[in-house]
Amino acid sequence: MQENNVNPAEIDKFSALASKWWDPDSEFKPLHEINPLRLQWIEEQVGGNLTGLRIVDIGCGGGILAESMAKKGAQVSGIDLAQKSLTVAKLHGLESGIKVDYQCISAEDFAAQHAGEFDVVTCMEMLEHVPNPASIIHACYQLVKPGGYVIFSTINRNPKSYALAIVAAEYIMNMVPKGTHHYEGFLKPSEVMRAARQSGLYLQELKGLEYNPLRKVYFLSNDTSVNYMLSTRK
Description:
Blueprint (H helix, E strand, L loop, with lengths): L7 H9 L12 H17 L8 E5 L5 H8 L3 E6 L2 H14 L4 E4 L2 H7 L4 E7 L8 H11 E12 L3 H14 L16 H11 L2 E11 L4 E5 L5 E7 L1
Parallel strand pairs: 1-2, 1-4, 2-3, 4-5
Antiparallel strand pairs: 5-8, 6-7, 6-8
Helix pairs in contact: 2-3, 5-6, 6-8
Family: Belongs to the methyltransferase superfamily. UbiG/COQ3 family.
Function: O-methyltransferase that catalyzes the 2 O-methylation steps in the ubiquinone biosynthetic pathway.
Catalytic activity: a 3-demethylubiquinol + S-adenosyl-L-methionine = a ubiquinol + S-adenosyl-L-homocysteine + H(+); a 3-(all-trans-polyprenyl)benzene-1,2-diol + S-adenosyl-L-methionine = a 2-methoxy-6-(all-trans-polyprenyl)phenol + S-adenosyl-L-homocysteine + H(+)
């Protein structure tokens, strides 16, 4: 069983907040606010329609993105190593009536069991929380069918991202809990793309995700200096 590529402190951190995943005014408020943007961009990347596609969401947490993709007609699996978050995801699925197959398993183990089975793999806001991001990226490559799509989102590593994603978001604006992010875990787009290419994934599009503190809205842009999304194909 491959669970070496996990930081127990990160699992504990999200487990402690598990009951709040679906509260749009909780610490997960930013995820709820960016989810429509993420979902729309994912749809655009895969041709405009998720209906009938087999998708696995790696690091699915409480299922916010996984449920929204299933609601669009996709056949979705969600995997995570935080059991409490998965329990919340399953309970919310019972309430919403939206079916997602949730499993507590590492990306590497899941890839060994389901190689080449998925049309789309999503891995959002997760790479910055694991010791070996390249191992996750390779698992994504293994999971997706030839011609399929792998979509990542994470945080760039530079002084601006430290100032905005940690100092401003955690300590000044209290948008996310203190300690949510660690600067050394941030990844430059070039680093993600290098690991993707080494696995056999090729860049399709790179997009920035920004926040306007005056209007209190998120929006997509070409500025990838802080938050960014990256789509690739096998």
